[in-house]
Amino acid sequence: MNQPVVTIVVPCYNEEEVLGETTRQLTYLMEDLETDRWIHPQSRILFVDDGSKDGTWELIEKESLVNGFVTGLKLSRNAGHQNALLAGLMEAKDFSDCVISIDADLQDDIGVIRDFILKYKEGCEIVYGVRKRRDSDTFFKRVTANGFYGFMKKIGIDLIPNHADFRLMSKRALVELCRYEESNPFLRGIIPLIGMKTANVYYDRKERLAGETKYPLKKMLAFAADGITSFSIVPIRFVTVIGVMAVCLSMLTGAYTMVHKIVGNTAAGWSSLMVSIWFIGGLQLMGIGVIGEYIGKIFREVKRRPKYSIETSLNLNKVGNKPKEREENELPVVSRY
Ligand code: UDP
Ligand code: MG
């Protein structure tokens, strides 16, 4: 417990531009933590290659030959950030006391990893990295992110505001996470449901070290929609409420029309008819769309397809739940940059 085996899980998708620098910085950190006896010598960095199309995996492979901290996991295809992260967490939990997840672009401050470990040693099972401010984001991303967190809170989804996937989880928390079997994991929504003793650590988020975001607008919107529909049936209820309101409204207009008919004032009416047909038609389509989203979700859930498949792994030494002691002649070669 005093020197926990820590694994840092880094999902990577087409990150060849940034991976060299990321490895360098993380290796320095691991060396320092090990020298200061904060972590067990069997602690590792686990890069999960999420079906990259560039030279990401070759870089990881090459690095693993000279850098004893580096281990790797290659997924057979691009499974998406959340699935790649989950693959890393599930793999690492078997041989780690705690696992820290961080993005490959090192936008998150690795300096606070010490605070994560400190909190873990104080007994926290989950430590969330929370951004102090969002200045490094574009105006657009800031506004949409704030809107998203606000909306999620309104409809009763308990997210940690301004926390992405930079966090520490203990083995216990990870074992608990395994019990959430949904095929569409939205980790930052699921993990707060685990409960247990948690802590927040605050940090400033930087610009990407290199390369481009792997979350273009389309992926971001899909991610937000997934987050909402995986955790809440409020949108369906909303459609029902609108439906009820539309029915009430149509009763009123019905009464209004009847009065006009009795009075004999029925010539006009084409425009109101058109408006209501379009309005009700629109509402119906919207309702069917929202319900369809949920049915689509059910469809995917019932199939219980594997969320990812692992093609290869590098240097992962797991033996049951206990880390294997390395033989003397097997000691990793750690290269100083
Ligand atoms: N990522 C991944 N699979 C994907 C998309 C992204 O593993 O399909 C990884 C990516 O390599 C990075 C992390 O997820 O380590 C976050 O992506 P990015 O930094 O591009 O997102 P942003 O910070 O712009 O939201
Ligand atoms: Mg990023």
Distance between the amino and carboxyl termini: 30 Å
CATH topology of the largest domain: Spore Coat Polysaccharide Biosynthesis Protein SpsA, Chain A
Mean pLDDT: 83
Rg, Å, rounded: 25 Å
The CATH architecture of the largest domain would be Alpha-Beta Complex
CATH class of the largest domain: Alpha Beta
Q: Which stretches are poorly predicted, pLDDT < 50 over at least 5 residues?
A: 318-337
- The domain count comes to 2
- Tell me the β content: 15-25%
Query: What topology, given as strand order, has the largest sheet?
Result: 7-5-6-4-1-2-3-8
**Separate helix tally:** 10
Descriptors:
Spore Coat Polysaccharide Biosynthesis Protein SpsA, Chain A, transmembrane, alpha/beta, binds magnesium ion, disordered C terminus, 10 strands, 337 residues, membrane, Glyco_trans_2-like, eight-stranded mixed beta sheet, binds uridine-5'-diphosphate, two-stranded antiparallel ribbon
Structure in words:
The chain has 10 helices and 10 strands. It has 337 residues and is of the alpha/beta class. It folds into 2 domains: 6-217 and 306-330, Alpha-Beta Complex (Spore Coat Polysaccharide Biosynthesis Protein SpsA, Chain A), CATH 3.90.550.10; 234-303. An 8-stranded mixed beta sheet has the order 7-5-6-4-1-2-3-8, with helices on both faces. α9 packs antiparallel against α10 (270-303). The longest helix is centred in the C-terminal third of the chain and has 34 residues, at 270-303. The chain starts with 5 loop residues before the first strand and ends in a 14-residue tail after the last strand. Magnesium ion is lined by residues 103, 105, 107, 208, 213.
